[in-house]
Amino acid sequence: MIVLYILLGLIGIIILLALIAPKKYEVNRSVIIDKSLPEVFQYLKFVRNQDHWSPWKKKDPNMKQESVGTDGEVGFIAKWEGNKQVGTGEQEILHIEHNEQIKTQLRFLKPWKSVSDAYIKVTEVDTNQTNVTWGFTGNNPVPMNIFMLFFNFEKAVGKDFEEGLASLKEILDKQ
Fold this sequence. Notes:
The chain has helices at 2-20, 37-44, 50-53, 55-59, 144-147, 153-174; strands spanning 24-33, 64-68, 77-81, 88-97, 101-110, 114-126, 129-139.
């Protein structure tokens, strides 16, 4: 009988945690680039340019990559297969609002399956400065949402975004 009470208690705790754990996530970071908005946007709309500034490319410079479609256009898909730090997945351009934002979908296949909506938004600070915001959003399905109570996803991924944006700034400020 005690085992049954313990089991029911554990099930109750899991249900409670699943109810209070976050069901959605969003992580983003921004940087100001010392270039005009059109110049910055023209560079950012090409997914393959992320190879030069993405923190994940640095984590596995030997990852296998392939693509489908025309980079910089809706429907372009960049695929990768890397080490355990970057996993396996693909990124597809879903929507481009000229000189405003690029929306993509990230589909991770390994080490676990997930889908996130990513974006890069640009806004003019002045004629020679552009604010770039890089981020992504998604849903935390039960029971994965429980994990988010014990792991600071915002801080972990945010650090990678900060590193990537610093590299992006370095590249574009020199051009």
